[in-house]
């Protein structure tokens, strides 16, 4: 049985026991990972993906690819030359199993690219910060109040339209408050 999986922007046709060099994944040597983006299993072609199918693999090692040389030379007098080399970060994996269904119940960690892992971890705390407190109004509905100004107002203790309507724009010390915001907040607080 074979499968076609997608990782790192590339597609690979794999069978059980194959060893692959793929774009760097956020996994250590010896870990079991699972590729959930399966495009084809045996002769079953999916719409974008085959539902419930996955390919499980074991990480063998984190390696670097062969060096590629980039050489640039400009013609004529006083020309310049530049030589640069690059070695791509790769992950060596051995395909252990191809699942046609039940991939979500396997309990194996999904394969995530190395550049995606820090972004996903940083996105979770950011989502918690962005959520307004219970009973708070969305201050960004006021013209001129963006996310940054709404955060400053929340830090100053203003979370509702009624609280903003009660503020004196000239004498308020907590954050910069415009008179137009106060007028709009009075309308919205009704």
TrEMBL record:
GO MF entries: rRNA binding; structural constituent of ribosome
GO cellular component: cytoplasm; ribonucleoprotein complex; ribosome
Gene Ontology BP terms: translation
Pfam families recorded: HHH_5, Ribosomal_L21p
UniProt name for this protein: Large ribosomal subunit protein bL21
UniProt family annotation: Belongs to the bacterial ribosomal protein bL21 family.
Keyword Protein biosynthesis: no
């Amino acid at each position: 049985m074979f499968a076609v999986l997608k990782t790192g922007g590339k597609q690979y046709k794999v069978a059980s026991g194959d060893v692959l060099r793929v774009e760097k994944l956020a996994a250590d040597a010896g870990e079991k990972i699972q590729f959930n983006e399966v495009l084809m299993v045996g002769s079953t072609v999916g719409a974008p993906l085959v539902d419930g199918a996955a390919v499980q693999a074991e990480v063998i090692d984190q390696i670097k690819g062969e060096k590629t040389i980039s050489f640039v030379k400009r013609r004529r007098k006083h020309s310049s030359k530049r030589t640069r080399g690059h070695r791509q970060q790769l992950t060596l994996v051995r395909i252990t199993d191809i699942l046609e269904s039940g991939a979500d119940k396997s309990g194996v960690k999904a394969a995530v690219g190395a550049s995606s892992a820090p972004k996903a971890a940083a996105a979770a705390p950011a989502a918690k910060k962005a959520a307004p407190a219970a009973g708070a109004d969305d201050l960004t509905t006021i013209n001129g109040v963006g996310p940054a100004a709404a955060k400053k107002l929340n830090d100053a203790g203003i979370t509702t339209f009624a609280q903003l309507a009660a503020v004196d724009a000239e004498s308020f010390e907590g954050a910069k408050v415009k008179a137009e915001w106060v007028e709009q907040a009075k309308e919205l607080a009704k």
